[in-house]
Every structure is written in C-alpha cells, then in structure tokens.
Amino acid sequence: MSSSSATSVALLALAVVLGGCTSEANVPAPARSPQPASARAPVELAPVVVSPYSDAELAAEFERARALLLADRAREAAPLFERLARLAPGGEVAPPSLFNAGLAHEALGDRALAAERYREVAQRFPDHAVARGALFRLSRAAAALERWPELVEVSRRLLRLGDLSVLEAIEARGALALGLVEQDLVEEAARQVALARDLIEEHRLGESGKPPIELAQVSFALGEVRRRRSEAITFVPVPASFVDALERRCQGLLDAQSAYTEAMRSLDAHWSAMAGYRIGQLYKELHRDVMQVPPPRSAGTPRERQLFEGAMRLRYRVLLEKGQKMLAGTVRLGDRTGESSAWVLRARDAQREIELALADEQAALARLPFTEAELLAALDALKTAAPKRP
Fold it and tell me: Which interval of the chain is the signal sequence (predicted)?
C-alpha cells in the first residue's frame, strides 16, 4: 500500500472513532429513580377545615347557642358551642365558642371538661378578649379539681397580666398561695397570703356583711398554712416541755380554725365544705397525736399505766366530739346545698371514722378497772403534772 493510501485509511479510521465518541456523548444519561419520599424533608401543612357555613350563618348559630346558655339550657347549648369550635377552629366564633362551651360544661357539673376548654382558649387565643376570663375560670377549676401544679402555673400567669383589679389580684395571689401550700411550700405560700391580706386590709374588704368570694380562697389558704405549721408540732418523742408543745399546737389549731371560719363567711358551699372538713380534721389529728404520748416514768406499775391511759382517754375524748360536730355540719351542708365535691365525701368518711373512734374510746374506758371518779381524780393530777419523757 502506498503512503498516500495508508494515510487515507488512517484518517478514515480516526473519523470513525471520533464519530463514535461524538455519538455516544450525545446519548442522554439514563434517568435516575426518584428518591423515596422518606428520604426527603417532611413538609407539614396546617390542617384546613372547610366549613359548609358562611360567617353570617356561624354567627347566627353562635347567637342561638348563646341564648340557650343565658336561658340556663346548658345541656342544649354545650354541643352547639362544641360544634361551632370544630367548624371554624380559626374563625371569629372559635374563642368565644370554646369559652362558652366551658361555661356550659361547668354549669352541668363537668369541671374537668370545662377546664379543658378554658385551657384551650388560653393556649390558642392568648390575646383574645375572652382569654383573661378563661384564665380566671381555669384557676378556679384547677383549685376545685385539686390540680395544684396547674393552679400555681395559671395564677403566676394571671399575676403577669399587670392590669389586674384589686379583687383580681387578691384572687390570683390566693390561688397561688393555695397551690403552693398544698405542695408543702408553706413559707412561700405564707408570703403570697400576706400580700393578698395587705390588699384586703388596705381596701377594707370584708369588714362588714358577706365578704367577696375572692377572699374565701385567701382565708382557706391561710388556714392551710397555719394547719401545717401547727401539725408539725408532735409529741413523740415527748418534747422537753410537753405543756409548752401542747399549748403551741392547740393555739395553732385555733388560729387555723379562725381562718377556715373566715372562709365560711363567704357563704359559698364549696369553700364552706372545704373549711368544715379541715376543722374537723384538726381535732381528729390532734386527738391521734396526743394519744400516742407514752406513760411517764413515774407510772411504774401496770395499774398506774392503766390509770394514765384512762385519764388521757377521758381528757382528750372531747377532741373527737368537737371534730364530729364540725364534720356532721359539713355533711348537712352538702345535703342542703347539693355540694357533692370530694371534700363533702371526705367529711362523710371522716365522720364515720370518728364515730368508730368514739365507740372504741368508750369500750376502752369500760375495760379499765376504775370508776369514773378515780379517772377524774387522775385527770386532775395529770393537769398539774405534765407527762415527762419516758
């Protein structure tokens, strides 16, 4: 092959190779399979509720439900407000519908469901006009349901509002004090009670006639503070000065009773039931504690120890009788007013316990080999010679 022919063949081969490379470069790359959905970042969309009703129709339905509520037909109003809140969860009728649903459930005696609605208003619509009222009602519901941590949280939120009226500030501080003391934060609760009482005294509230109900919670919280301080004084082991310890315990009882009695002046069945139960418990617990005092060292014989036991039973039985009287009054209050809270149920249980305790006391005294005159003589001796450490 001549050199020119060889050159032509080489150029032709090069053209074929280059042409092949060029054609491959123009072929589109195979499409990759799309990434699975799970590998992508999730996209969350707000739920969209499409209402079949216009704003005017929703407003008309709201007014119908409101009229039922104002007419004391809460059982009919409640489901209408619930439905409105579902149909327009972000609409203008949602906040007042939730609030009014809470009012309706509260009127029907379902405080737990009412609290849910008030809480929803406060969380979802904190700037709405009804949010303030929802917070106060949530505070009251939390107290009634004994949800003490929530009561503290809500009352602190109320105090942060900054534009509270005098009675609103008193109620918020009373609620905070109650929530704290029921969680054993006694001294912090006492400070809140003091702040509330300063406002009460400054504005001379409750000095005559029935005091505003906002004051009842403050008085009850004060009773709780005094009760816990009093019951911290115990008699086993026997203190160095039993008489002094007993006097301080009894004075604490009377101070707590005074505060609970002040709470009753509001004539509110719920606060009165709470206070009545607590007063009954004060006497019951004091009886339990003093009866744990062991005989003194001077009671060296079985007869002397029995005499000490009889004198103690005779002397302190009156505590059970006082407690029984107060609890019986609380139970009658519940029957008369229809108050059926846990406090009335507790009063019934405590009343039965005291009745059994009094029967046990009577039986124990009957078993002792002493006449009542002998026990009374021992009681006189006990009054002048306090129990000493065993």
Answer: 1-25
Could you give the CA distance from residue 30 to residue 345 in angstroms, rounded to a whole number?
78
Residues 284, 285, 290, 293, Cα dihedral to 10°? 130
Question: Which of 142, 171, 194 represents a domain boundary (last residue)?
Answer: 142
pLDDT for the residue numbered 52: 66
Q: Which of 151, 150, 166 is nearest to 220 (CA)?
A: 151
Confidence class of residue 237 from pLDDT cuts 50, 70 and 90? Answer: very high
Inside any domain, residue 251? no
Domain of residue 78: give its range: 54-142
One-letter amino acid at 228 equals: R
Total domains in the fold of the chain:
2
257 Cβ neighbours under 8 A, 6+ residues apart: 223, 279, 282
- 342 assigned to some structural domain: yes
**How large is the angle between the packed helices 302-337 and 372-384, nearest 10 degrees?**
90
Nearest residue to 99 (alpha-carbon basis) of 83, 112, 126, 81: 81
Query: Own/partner pairs for 193-200, CB < 8 Å, 24+ apart?
Result: 193/218, 193/221, 193/222, 193/225, 196/169, 196/170, 197/222, 199/166, 199/169, 199/170, 199/173, 200/170
Give the tens place of pLDDT for each residue, 75-133.
999 999 999 999 999 999 999 999 999 999 999 999 999 999 999 999 999 999 999 99
> How many Å apart are CA 187 and CA 206, to the nearest integer?
25
What's the number of CA atoms in the CB half-sphere (13 Å) around residue 140?
A: 18
CB 282 within 8 A of CB 250: no
Q: What is the Cα–Cα distance from 293 to 289, expressed in whole angstroms?
A: 7
Q: What is the pTM of this model?
A: 0.82
**How many Cα neighbours within 13 Å face the side chain of 278?**
31
How confident is the model over 347-372, as pLDDT tens digits?
Answer: 999 999 999 999 999 999 999 998 88
Q: Which range is least confidently modeled, 41-55, 203-217, 241-255?
A: 41-55
Last residue of a domain, one of 142, 175, 190: 142
**∠ Cα 327 333 334 (to 5°):** 95
Cis peptide before 237 (omega within 30 of 0): yes
Q: Please report, for the domain that includes residue 89, its CATH number.
A: 1.25.40.10
